[in-house]
Design goal:
This protein is an alpha/beta fold and 224 residues long. It has a single domain, classed as Double Stranded RNA Binding Domain (2-Layer Sandwich). It is 31% helix and 32% strand. The protein has 5 helices and 7 strands. β2 and β3 form a beta hairpin. α2 runs parallel beside α5. It starts with a helix and ends in a 9-residue tail after the last helix.
Length: 224
């Protein structure tokens, strides 16, 4: 089995591929529209990034700092432009190692105490082990002559908490990327890379959720 996976991985590396993403399930359909007149608020963005290979992992695992999508901070910063009354803000990313790191725990507690609102974001990246195994087997047997799809599912759950730590509202989004492997797709690859399509999902996720939070006036309630 290990030999098959090694051979399959080698074939996937040298063959052509093209990645496409689905539409965003649960999208608000709202246009970007800032609502003027609200007093500025301070917001702490707390994110956790999980991955799971279903059929192999018993539970989702937190990604470490090197596994998280490169450029995530830039994507988050860009999405904050959807808010009309954002004043000070900070971002904290949770890692599984935080549980045994008193300094990280103290840092998170300090940030939560010094920022008025908290927006907690959970990103989850899932794939099926059986489908990946069968896809690799198909790639090996056909020498990538048959187009083989590899699908990743992306979930986003956003919870908003007020200055007293009370839950306010949740937002959910879902999308998938499908990477097609076939030697003849090599000329298509530069226009449909997996990294770009994954980034596009994260961008769409955050902009749409923040746009809906702005529309719901969630960050304005604290000023009443």
């Amino acid at each position: 089995m290990k030999f098959l996976l090694v051979i399959g991985s080698s074939i996937l590396m040298i063959s052509g591929c093209a990645t496409f993403h689905s539409d965003i399930d649960g999208a608000s359909g709202l246009e970007s529209s800032k609502i003027p007149g609200a007093d500025p608020v301070d917001v702490l963005f707390v994110s956790r990034h999980l991955q799971q290979t279903r059929g192999l992992d018993a539970v989702p695992k937190l990604q470490n700092r090197w596994q998280i999508l490169k450029g995530f901070d830039d994507i988050l910063l860009d999405a904050t432009g959807e808010f009309s009354n954002l004043n000070r803000y900070a971002a904290f990313t949770e890692f599984s190692s935080d549980m045994s790191d008193p300094k990280r725990i103290a840092l998170k507690d300090s940030l939560m105490a010094n920022y008025k609102l908290r927006i907690a974001m959970e990103f989850r990246n899932e794939r099926s082990f059986s489908k990946y195994f069968l896809g690799t087997l198909g790639s090996v047997v056909s020498a990538t002559l048959l187009p083989i799809p590899y699908t990743h599912e992306f979930f986003l759950m956003v919870d908003v908490y007020d200055s007293n730590g009370r839950y306010t509202k949740s937002y959910k989004r879902y999308a998938t990327t499908t990477r097609w492997i076939q030697a003849f797709l090599l000329p298509v690859y530069p226009f449909h890379t997996e990294k770009r399509k994954t980034e596009e999902i994260y961008v769409a996720f955050l902009h749409d959720v923040f746009r809906e939070i702005e529309h719901d006036k969630i960050l304005r309630y604290e000023n009443k």
